[in-house]
Structure formats: structure tokens, C-alpha cells
Amino acid sequence: MTALLEVTDLCVDYSGLRAVDGLSISLAHGTIMGLIGPNGAGKTTTIDALCGFVPQVRGSILLDGHPIDSLPPHMRARAGLVRTFQSIELFVDLSVEENLLVATSTSRWWSPFVDAVAPRRHVHRDDVNLALDTVGLRSLATARPSDLSHGQRRLVGVARALASRPKLVLLDEPAAGLDPAETASLGQMLRNLPELGIAVLLVDHDMSLVLDVCDRLTVVDFGQVIASGVPMDVREDPSVISAYLGGGS
Ligand SMILES: Nc1ncnc2c1ncn2[C@@H]1O[C@H](COP(=O)(O)OP(=O)(O)O)[C@@H](O)[C@H]1O
Ligand SMILES: [Mg+2]
């Protein structure tokens, strides 16, 4: 069966620094893959490159068997590849549900902004409601981001990604700043996504979350894959222990 995401030999440079160095990953439909590694290992850059936010020097990216490397970011999102940001990036003047409505339109470049103030298609409301139910925030639909806790804002960022009904969501440190109870409910929610037809690439430092929810792990260091496999094997890998798990972060 064709992998949902097949990345081969991806390389990204920042003015002379090779931040991602020949990275290859294969993510199957209906699965959750963890992408872990020390600070500066190239995890966020990998997400940026997959979404087209930074140019790749080399490599190929197939989504469901189709090359997406030459598509601009919004076309990749329409193809079903969406991401969250490490820094959340909500629209502060919009309500929670308006923040999600911005994500749901696919018709014209201005439609997201129109739909944010006057949604016309009920299907969008359904998508938004499903996304809010998935993260458990339906009761806060009319709240503003400033009324929410940090953990709730992070979940709105995740819900906004889910509202576009992606095939694959790339989550950049969704548990950062969450308390243990919030992290546990995030984990529960992530485990439900494959049933909704949404696969996940999860970047996070919280090893208990990553080990708990991921079917497979890919470990990167200095932009290169140093180990990959099922969590049980990867956590025992000596190179992983010395590069990351033993590092205490
Ligand atoms: N915009 C940028 N310009 C220059 N260097 C960058 C930029 N973003 C990240 N880097 C560098 O690229 C490397 C990988 O960074 P990053 O992808 O953010 O790592 P991670 O998300 O794993 O912590 C680091 O050495 C970092 O300093
Ligand atoms: Mg990062």
C-alpha cells in the first residue's frame, strides 16, 4: 500500500547551515509518527519544508503517492497536509470558532476571510464543530483567545488544523506549556485522530506523550535520522539514548 507521506533525502539549508540533511521518512495511513530529537535537530525545519514554508535544496515529498514538493503552501494544505505552529499563532481579534472557520474554506483566496465573518456553507460549521468536539472545546466556541488558558489556546491551534479535514496533521510541540492533565487529554485526543481518517506527525519533547501515542518514532540529530522504528525498540537504541533520552530534555 502507498504510504500517506513518503519523504526521501530531504535537505534544507539556512545560509550555509544544513538544518535537514538527507532525511527520509515513510508514514503509513491511519498512524501516528513521532519525530523527536534534541533542540536544534531540525524538527521544525522538517515541518516547514514539508508544508513549503522553507525551500528544500534536495529531496522528494509524496503525499498519497503524489509529488507535492513544487506546490506552494496553500496548495499543500488543500492536498490535505496541514500544520500547527510551535508559537500557536491564533488570530487574537477572532473568536475560537472564527479562528477555525478561517481554516475551512477551499474555494477562493479571499474566502477564508469572508467565511470568518459570514460563513455561507453549513458544512464549514460542521467541520468546526467536529474539530472543537475533538479537542473538547465546543463550550468555548465564542470565547476569544485572550480568555483562554495557554493549554486551551494550544488546543485551538490543533483544532484549527483539524477543521480543514486534513489527511495528515503536523503538530509542532502541541504539549509545550500544558500541565500533566492537559497533556493526558491531548494524548487521548491524538489517539482518536486515525479513526477520523487523520494521520499525525508529532514533534514533542514530552517523552511520555510521544511514547504513549505514537505507533512509530523517527529520531533526528543534526538534521539526520539516527533511529526509527516502534517506540519500544527506539527507546532502547544506544545512539538515541546518548543523543537525546540521556540528554535529560
Ligand atoms: N530561520 C532560520 N535561520 C537560520 N537558521 C535557522 C532558522 N531556523 C532554524 N535554524 C537553525 O536550523 C537548525 C534546526 O532548527 P530547528 O528546525 O528549529 O530545530 P528543532 O525544531 O529540532 O529544535 C538549528 O541549528 C537552528 O539554529
Ligand atoms: Mg522546533
TrEMBL record:
Q: Which CDD domains match?
A: ABC_Mj1267_LivG_branched
> What is one GO cellular-component annotation here?
plasma membrane
ABC transporter domain spans which residues?
5-247
GO molecular function per UniProt: ATP binding; ATP hydrolysis activity
Keyword check for Cytoplasm: no
The record's annotation in InterPro entries points to: AAA+_ATPase (IPR003593), ABC_AA/LPS_Transport (IPR051120), ABC_transporter-like_ATP-bd (IPR003439), ABC_transporter-like_CS (IPR017871), BCA_ABC_TP_C (IPR032823), P-loop_NTPase (IPR027417)
Which Pfam families does this chain map to? ABC_tran, BCA_ABC_TP_C
| UniProt keyword annotations, A-Z | ATP-binding, Nucleotide-binding, Transport
For this protein, the record's Gene3D superfamilies field holds: P-loop containing nucleotide triphosphate hydrolases (3.40.50.300)
Name recorded for this polypeptide:
Unannotated protein
Instruction: Provide the species name.
Output: freshwater metagenome
